Amino acid sequence: MSLTMSALFSKIYLVSKLALTRSSIWVKDQFESLVVAMESFAAGLGL
């Protein structure tokens, strides 16, 4: 029983860690594109 539970927990941990890494990469990409958009907008205004 405890062996299956620990295997299940380690699997859940790995999956959530992978999902967290992917989502943080996605957030970083979104943030960088937002910064680029703001910079180009400011350049368009001549700031």
Q: What attributes characterize this protein structure?
A:
47 residues, mainly alpha, 1 helix, 0% strand, rod-shaped
3D structure, described in words:
The protein is mostly helical and 47 residues long. The protein has a domain at 19-47. Helices cover 94% and strands 0% of the residues. It has 1 helix and no strands.
Distance between the first and last residues' Cα = 65 Å
User: Shape from CA axes?
Assistant: rod-shaped
Q: Mean pLDDT score, rounded?
A: 91
Poorly predicted residue ranges: none
Helix content: over 70%
User: Please, how many helices?
Assistant: 1
Quaternary structure type: single chain
> What percentage of the residues does DSSP assign to strands (E)?
under 5%
What's the alpha carbon Rg, rounded to whole Å?
A: 20 Å
Derived structural class? mainly alpha
Strand count: 0
- How are helices and strands ordered from N to C? H
Largest sheet: none
Give a brief outline of the structure.
With 47 residues, the chain is an all-alpha fold.
Topology record:
Elements: H1 2-45
